[in-house]
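F.,

This is the one I mentioned.
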């Protein structure tokens, strides 16, 4: 018989992260480029005061433990308030991606049965459509002050955030509850089918915050600016980890373009920032135009899609900003692996270092990884065997919101839908999404590695590779690119790729297009490309 430990059974809850920051780092700054325009400044101390007032207001509006409250909002201090107040009273903060089409927004709010909707004024049109289309919605609240609130009649009895919380007092009697209670809800982006709800527990979010802090995505001496939106997997957990560390937070609000990102990073002394590659392209263009980096920027965490060699070289070799590559997904809260160079690679030749950086990274403690073949048999960690990547751990999904069937394997692992390798040093490399991998004969060709190699060609600005039917090989790669200047020919591209990739991987066809279809989370929509080029047959 095991012997019970004798430590206190204190639940791991989200609100204490902010209470800690308010008590010990009360004057640490939370700075936002506001939706209304000016830069807004507050602190963790003031944030906790507003969160208490907001908790009173939510309770007055009838929100009870377990209720869902939707946010249609950018990265701002008010959204941070919502994260903590909603979870603090035991309700669920449902962050919604405002860039989704109207019918999908209505589907998500109806599915979640959200009772309230908080919206940034730049999303007033989307919010108005939801008021009309979602029967469970009782009240909507504009995230602004009285001077900027919409005055049209589309919202019924509209509440204004700043006015609403100003009426409330402090000293909210916070409830204490089980750490497995849901704190937030985020739907998968639906690039692979209908969106599915992922309900994050307090326990998962707190443990994940420790993992984010322990693995260098954020540290106590950083000034942090998550550019990844707070409606996308809780901005990778940074809004929870920053208060855990007491580190100042900078929010870009509506600023996603290179010049405004640069300005905010420069003036606020941002040292570490997190986001997807498409956003960083804009920042790099701006850094080149100005001839320098934002002055204090040390580290850029790139995830959500693979970082390319050209991006690593631009940040690191041109500007001395270190790149941490990371991988995760909505279902994994999201941190699964992060690429921080092991000591032995720090002294390796530069090309070898860069090659290693393109791998997604090493599994963090708490997220177990394995690769299996089509029959679920474990595959070797030799850096070449490609298999289905599976993961398990305390912040990995167990089941989707309102779905009965388990998404897990019989032995309790979550299949990520990604294909990749694991090498003897512990580095995972994603070679593709299971549905994007090109099955040429019996072999797999990685579309993402082809794309990244193609991006190194001077005449290629953007690239996507899809499999198209082939008479002999069943499927072969088609390269679709947005040219930079004069469109390249297939022969020119292949001559370049042949020095970097196996010959049999080289694309059989090339299409040059004006732009690639980009989904609401900044990823290329291959479904749209498959549809557009479905007439192509090779061989
Ligand atoms: P969706 O699955 O709908 O695209 P997610 O935002 O959850 O929404 O995306 C997770 C997926 O993004 C992963 O399964 C993986 O395919 C891809 N991804 C995330 N990070 C990386 C990375 N660093 N390199 C390559 N692919 C990545």
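My design for it:
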């Amino acid at each position: 018989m095991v012997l019970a430990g004798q430590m206190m059974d204190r639940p791991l809850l989200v609100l204490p992260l902010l209470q800690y920051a308010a008590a010990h780092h009360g004057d640490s700054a939370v700075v936002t480029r506001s939706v209304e325009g000016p830069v807004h400044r507050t602190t963790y101390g003031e944030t906790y005061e507003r969160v208490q007032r907001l908790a009173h207001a939510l309770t007055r509006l009838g929100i009870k433990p377990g209720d869902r409250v939707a946010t249609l909002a950018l990265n701002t201090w008010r959204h941070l308030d919502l994260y903590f107040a909603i979870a603090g009273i035991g309700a669920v903060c449902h962050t919604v991606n405002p860039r989704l089409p109207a019918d999908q927004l209505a589907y998500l709010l109806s599915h979640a049965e959200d009772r309230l909707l908080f919206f940034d004024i730049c999303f007033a049109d989307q919010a108005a459509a939801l008021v009309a289309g979602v029967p469970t919605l009782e009240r909507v609240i504009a995230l602004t002050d009285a001077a900027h609130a919409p005055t049209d009649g589309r919202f019924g009895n509209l509440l204004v955030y700043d006015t609403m919380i100003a009426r409330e007092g402090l000293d909210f009697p916070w409830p204490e509850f089980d750490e497995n209670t849901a704190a937030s809800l985020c739907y998968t982006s639906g690039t692979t089918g209908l969106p599915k709800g992922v309900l994050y527990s307090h326990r998962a979010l707190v443990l994940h915050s420790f993992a984010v802090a322990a693995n260098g995505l954020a540290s106590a001496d950083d000034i942090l600016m998550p550019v990844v939106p707070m409606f996308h997997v809780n901005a990778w957990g940074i809004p929870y980890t920053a208060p855990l560390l007491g580190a100042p937070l900078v929010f870009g609000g509506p600023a996603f373009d290179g010049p405004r990102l640069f300005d905010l990073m420069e003036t606020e002394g941002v040292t570490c920032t997190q986001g997807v590659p498409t956003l960083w392209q804009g920042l790099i263009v701006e850094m080149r135009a100005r001839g320098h980096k934002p002055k204090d920027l040390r580290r850029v965490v790139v995830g959500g899609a693979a970082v390319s060699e050209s991006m690593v070289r631009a940040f690191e070799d041109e500007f001395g900003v270190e790149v941490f590559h990371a991988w995760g997904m909505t279902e994994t809260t999201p941190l699964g692996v992060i690429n921080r160079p092991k000591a032995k690679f720090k002294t390796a030749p530069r090309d070898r270092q860069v090659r290693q950086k393109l791998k997604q990274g090493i599994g963090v403690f708490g997220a177990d990884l394995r690769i299996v073949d089509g029959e679920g048999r474990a595959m070797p960690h030799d850096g070449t065997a490609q298999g289905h990547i599976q993961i398990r751990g305390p912040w990995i999904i167990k089941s989707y919101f309102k779905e009965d069937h388990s998404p897990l394997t019989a032995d309790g692992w979550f299949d990520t839908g990604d294909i990749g390798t694991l090498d003897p040093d512990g580095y995972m490399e994603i070679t593709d999404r299971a549905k994007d991998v090109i099955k040429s004969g019996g072999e797999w060709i990685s579309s993402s590695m082809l794309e990244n190699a193609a991006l190194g060609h001077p005449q290629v600005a953007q690239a996507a590779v899809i499999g198209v039917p082939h008479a002999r090989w069943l499927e072969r790669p088609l390269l679709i690119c947005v040219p930079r200047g004069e469109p390249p020919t297939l022969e020119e591209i292949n001559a370049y790729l042949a020095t970097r990739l196996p010959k049999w991987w080289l694309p059989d066809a090339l299409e040059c297009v004006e732009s690639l279809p980009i989904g609401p989370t900044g990823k290329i929509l291959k479904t749209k490309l498959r549809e557009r080029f479905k007439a192509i047959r090779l061989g």
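The chain is about 30% helix and 25% strand.

Talk soon.
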